[in-house]
């Protein structure tokens, strides 16, 4: 009230001073009495007007002060309510979303809006949406358990709170992994791991990175903006543009040794770049050694006269040697395209370099079956329409697939045929000789004989089959005819090292009384030819001639 009185008195004094100044101004205008009456009217009117304005100002001021006091009281109550609500929400462990009629979340606490959206995007969204509609429409509360992409179980409870619908979320973390100190885990890893910000400046690194860059502490690495390789920042720039870097091979000096590193970098959600490096030095050395072994293996294969072709588990040609190209006359450019075994057989058939078959499809299917049955292999001879004969063999490949070995045996077959023809000719020739002939090799085995030898020593052909040894023949003769020392002489002649001591041994008497003439001849190839001549009839005739005649008296 004191303030209001001061305001009123101030306004009254202001009006009086204004009226006085106005009167003085009007006096200057003239001394006419009429003017004095007019002046008095103006003064009175002004006084009344000033008094009214002062009263209006006082009332307005008082109303404004009352309104400000009520506003401060309302603000205090609202702040108290807010503090109480925040305290209640803090005491509640659940996430909360307050819904409007359009199922949005105008109010959200502890990520309630995000959880609501995750639940509505999960596999249980239809059932949850129906319950929320009932809650908004009729205030029907509910309790349910739903699944989301991030959490296997989320307990959802809805209820009406005044004119709003509140939804409470509680995440079941019983099956979740416990929280870990991921920085400590990354520090324990032997792989260098680091993070750069969007400006490609190092912001964090683990101990393996510090050791690889020679930094004593993380602070030192951050101050020097350490890096494993100068080009690593270029890779980080590429990753910052949204293009992930995978298995970028770089070389760096780690602990004074040049190492091969495989770097992977990826941009994170905050546009920083995370990277890690794997030491692939041992792998690189192993790959180099493997490549050297493969090259050496290929060089060895190319020196072989046997054609070699390796087909993988997918039946495609993996490797071949130069003999394979020479044998089958296949273009190397076509072979380098890794054709399948089926394609190779089809092409060889077009070139008439596979055996003629009445059912080629069945024959090819039989050969392709070995790729599906472990341990199955091929061992056969191909007689080609061109006249070539090929010995074909397949063995399982350790890395999966089959190794084919092709050997041209045409010349060998021709030589065997010629040799057999020669043997047959020789046998026919020696069978025309009346003397008994036996040819023993340097190893003492019977290589050849004629029919006269079989008849002389009373052998059956089956007993002389398979190139029996001289000792076995001697035992058979001793058991059948008796021991007479003839075969001991033959053994001495076959085993003798001085050819000049060999020759005609003269007449011998066999255990059964036959008179034989033995001749041992060393041949140029080291074999020994034994010749038996049956002189029994000649000996009997001579004995008859030499026998004295007895003269009887007439």
Written description of the protein model:
This protein is an alpha+beta fold. It folds into five domains: 2-75; 92-171, Beta-Lactamase, CATH 3.30.450; 188-279, PAS domain (Beta-Lactamase, 2-Layer Sandwich), CATH 3.30.450; 287-408, Beta-Lactamase, CATH 3.30.450; 426-543, 2-Layer Sandwich (Beta-Lactamase). 46% of the residues lie in helices and 22% in strands. The protein is built from 18 helices and 20 strands. The strands form four sheets. A five-stranded antiparallel β-sheet has the order 2-1-5-4-3, covered by helices on one side. Helix 1 (2-29) runs antiparallel to helix 2 (33-91). It is rod-shaped.
Short description:
This protein is of the alpha+beta class and 554 residues long.
Helix content: 40-55%
Task: Give the neighbour order of strands across the main sheet.
Answer: 2-1-5-4-3
Largest sheet: 5 strands, antiparallel
- Described by the principal axes of the CA atoms, the overall outline is rod-shaped
Mean pLDDT: 81
Strand content: 15-25%
Counted up, domains total: 5
- CATH topology name of the largest domain: Beta-Lactamase
Total DSSP helices: 18
- Rg, rounded, reads 60 Å
- Say which CATH homologous superfamily of the largest domain is assigned: PAS domain
Q: Distance N terminus to C terminus?
A: 215 Å
CATH class label of the largest domain: Alpha Beta
Please give the CATH architecture of the largest domain.
Answer: 2-Layer Sandwich
Low-confidence stretches: none
Task: Give short descriptive properties of this protein.
single chain; 554 residues; alpha+beta; Beta-Lactamase; five-stranded antiparallel β-sheet; 18 helices; 20 strands; 46% helix; 22% strand; rod-shaped; PAS-like_dom_sf; transmembrane; membrane; PAS domain-containing protein
């Amino acid at each position: 009230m004191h303030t209001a009185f001061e305001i009123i008195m101030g306004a009254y004094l202001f009006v009086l001073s204004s009226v006085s100044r106005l009167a003085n101004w009007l006096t200057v205008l003239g001394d006419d009495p009429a003017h004095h009456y007019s002046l008095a009217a103006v003064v009175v009117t002004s006084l009344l007007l000033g008094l009214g304005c002062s009263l209006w100002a006082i009332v307005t001021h008082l109303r404004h002060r009352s309104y400000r006091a009520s506003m401060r009281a309302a603000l205090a109550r609202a702040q108290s309510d807010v503090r109480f609500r925040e305290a209640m929400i803090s005491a509640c462990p659940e996430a909360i979303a307050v819904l409007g009629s359009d199922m949005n979340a105008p109010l959200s606490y502890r990520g309630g809006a995000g959880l609501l959206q995750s639940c509505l995007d999960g596999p249980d969204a239809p059932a949850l949406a129906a319950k929320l509609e009932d809650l908004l429409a009729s205030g029907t509360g509910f309790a349910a358990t739903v699944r989301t992409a991030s959490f296997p179980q989320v307990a959802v409870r809805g209820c009406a709170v005044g004119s709003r619908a509140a939804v409470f979320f509680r995440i079941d973390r019983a099956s979740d992994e416990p929280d870990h100190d991921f920085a400590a885990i990354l520090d324990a890893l032997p792989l260098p791991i680091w993070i750069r910000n969007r400006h490609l400046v190092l912001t964090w690194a683990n101990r393996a990175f510090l050791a690889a860059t020679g930094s004593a502490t993380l602070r030192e690495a951050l101050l020097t903006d350490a890096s494993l390789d100068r080009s690593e920042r270029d890779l980080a720039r590429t990753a910052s543009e949204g293009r992930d870097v995978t298995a970028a091979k770089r070389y760096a000096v780690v602990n004074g040794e040049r190492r091969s590193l495989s770097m992977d970098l990826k941009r994170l959600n905050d546009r920083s770049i995370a990277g890690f490096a794997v030491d692939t030095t041992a792998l690189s050395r192993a790959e180099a050694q493997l490549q050297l072994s493969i090259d050496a293996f290929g060089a060895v294969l190319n020196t072989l006269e046997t054609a070699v072709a390796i087909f993988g588990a997918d039946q495609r040609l993996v490797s071949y040697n130069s003999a394979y190209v020479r044998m089958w006359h296949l273009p190397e450019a076509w072979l380098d395209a890794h054709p399948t075994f089926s394609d190779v057989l089809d092409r060889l058939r077009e070139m008439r370099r596979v055996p003629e078959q009445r059912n080629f499809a069945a024959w090819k299917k039989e050969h392709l079956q070995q790729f599906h049955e472990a341990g199955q292999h091929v061992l056969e001879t191909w007689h080609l329409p061109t006249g070539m004969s090929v010995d074909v063999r397949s063995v399982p490949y350790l890395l999966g697939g089959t190794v084919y070995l092709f050997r041209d045996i045409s010349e060998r077959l021709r030589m065997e045929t010629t040799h057999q023809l020669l043997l047959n000719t020789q046998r026919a020739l020696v069978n025309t000789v009346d003397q008994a002939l036996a040819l023993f090799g340097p190893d003492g085995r019977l290589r050849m004989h004629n029919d006269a030898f079989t008849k002389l020593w009373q052998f059956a052909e089956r007993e002389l089959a398979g190139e029996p040894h001289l000792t076995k023949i001697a035992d058979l003769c001793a058991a059948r005819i008796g021991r007479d020392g003839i075969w001991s002489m033959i053994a001495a002649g076959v085993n003798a090292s001085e050819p000049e001591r060999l020759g005609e041994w003269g007449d011998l008497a066999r255990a059964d009384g036959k008179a034989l003439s033995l001749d041992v001849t060393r041949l140029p190839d080291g074999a020994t030819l034994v010749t038996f001549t049956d002189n029994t009839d000649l000996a009997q005739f001579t004995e008859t001639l030499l026998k004295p005649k007895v003269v009887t008296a007439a």
